[in-house]
Amino acid sequence: MSKLRLAVVAVSMCVGLALVYGPVAVAQTTPDTAASTPKQVHKANRKAASKAARAKKNAELKALEKNGYSPGGNQVNYPQNLQDAQRKVDAEKAAQGKPASAP
Length: 103
What we know:
The chain is mostly helical. Among the domains are: about 1-30; about 55-95, no CATH class. Helices cover about 80% and strands about 0% of the residues. It contains three helices and no strands. The chain has helices at about 1-30, 35-65, 80-95. Helix 2 (about 35-65) crosses helix 3 (about 80-95). The chain is rod-shaped. It starts with a helix and ends in a 7-residue tail after the last helix.
């Protein structure tokens, strides 16, 4: 009878421990989605900053091209053509009240 009691106590303790520590073990093995969130946010911020910078550069190039600069055209007077176009863009911005771009 004592062996049977010992077996029942041992089995009940195992079942009790499994019920107590089982959910904790399962909770620790699930992936933590909060840990990956800052990485995804950082990636999205970098992508947005890159997209904004590209849009700004494209707008500046379009303004220069509108004022006579041709990056793929005749490059004989390259620096002077670019500087002339930049002066025209700066003059337009000054007339609109916007600050001029830096050289």
